[in-house]
Every structure is written in C-alpha cells, then in structure tokens.
Amino acid sequence: MQLPPAYTLPWFEFVCEELLSKKPNEATEILVEFRTSSYAFLARDFLINTSIPMVKFQAALVLQYACISRWESMSAVDQNEFRSLIWGLIVPDQGIRSALLPAYASNKLLQVFALTWKRGWRAENPSARQSFLFSL
Fold first, then answer.
1. Cα-Cα-Cα-Cα dihedral sign, residues 10, 43, 17, 19
2. Rounded to whole angstroms, how far apart are CA atoms 25 and 31?
3. Count of CB atoms within 10 A of residue 51's CB?
4. Contacts (Cβ under 8 Å, ≥6 apart) of 12
5. Residues 6+ apart with CB under 8 A from 78
6. How far is 77 from 12, CA to CA, in rounded Å?
7. Cβ(12)–Cβ(40) below 8 Å
8. Do 34 and 69 meet the contact criterion of CB atoms below 8 Å apart?
9. With contact defined as beta carbons under 8 Å apart, do 122 and 85 qualify?
10. Are 109 and 101 contacting, i.e. CB atoms less than 8 angstroms apart?
11. Rounded Cα distance, 33 and 72, in Å
12. pLDDT tens per residue, range 21-56
C-alpha cells in the first residue's frame, strides 16, 4: 500500500478506501495504530473537511476511541471544546457542519457525544448538568 504523507486528510481518506479493497487488514491495522497515537484528535479535522461519508464515520470511530482512552488526561477546556465540536456536527444550525452527515455517521457522533457526558458527568457542576439537559 503506497500511502500519502501520514496524518493528513488525503492519507486518512486513502486508508479508509483501502478498507474496501481486497486486503483490508493492513488498512485496519493502520487505523488501529492511528487511533492510539498522539495524533488521533486530528480526526476532528478529517471529519469536518472530508466529503466522503465512510471517512466521516471512520473519523468518528477514531474520535470515540481517543475520547474514551484520553478523557481523564484532557483539560476541562479541551473537554468542553470537544463536546461543542461534536454537538456542532450533529445539530445542523450550529454552523460547524461541513456537509450533511449520513445517518450512520451521525449516529456514531451521537454516541461519542453521549460518551463525553457520561465520562465527565460526575466532574460537572450541577448548573452545567442542568444546562445540558435543558438544551436537549
């Protein structure tokens, strides 16, 4: 597999396309390695900037893993920015969404968003919890 420069959108799109090839194992190994790397949160940019539905879904999967594994080490500011970004991609009137998400990618983002609240629920103050529930 001849890859474009690593950790760029063309690289990520290429790896995702390789998942549909006759030998998806190598692409899967690359995605698993990427989601555990320190570059995993670049998937936010890939999610926003790609127009390929499967790439959006795979980026959401990477973000889900990165969020779960690194949530405790993220600052409160980074956690809130991450939540806001994901919510902005889910809710069309937030202005962040680059293109209409397919249902399967949108559902994955909803899972990621729910996980961010689940992971941080106890650390949030009561007014933040109440604000979140009213926003739904």
1. positive
2. 10
3. 9
4. 34, 43, 46, 50, 55, 58, 59
5. none
6. 27
7. no
8. no
9. no
10. yes
11. 20
12. 887 999 999 999 999 998 999 998 998 899 898 999
* Predicted model pTM: 0.79
What pLDDT digit, counting tens, does each position of 68-89 carry?
888 888 888 888 888 888 888 8
The dihedral sign for the CA sequence 91, 93, 96, 99 = positive
Nearest to 30 by CA among 10, 45, 11: 11
Question: Residue 21 carries which side chain, given as an amino acid letter?
Answer: S
DSSP 53-94: HHHHHHHHHHHHHHHHHHGGGS-HHHHHHHHHHHHHHHSGGG
How far does CA 129 lie from the centroid of its chain? Answer: 22
As a whole number of angstroms, the distance between CA 136 and CA 133 comes to 5
CA count, 13 A, side-chain hemisphere, 23? 3
HSE-CB for 124 with a 13 A CA cutoff: 17
Task: Evaluate whether 59 touches 50 at the Cβ level (below 8 Å).
Answer: yes
The whole-angstrom separation of Cα 71 and Cα 27 is 26
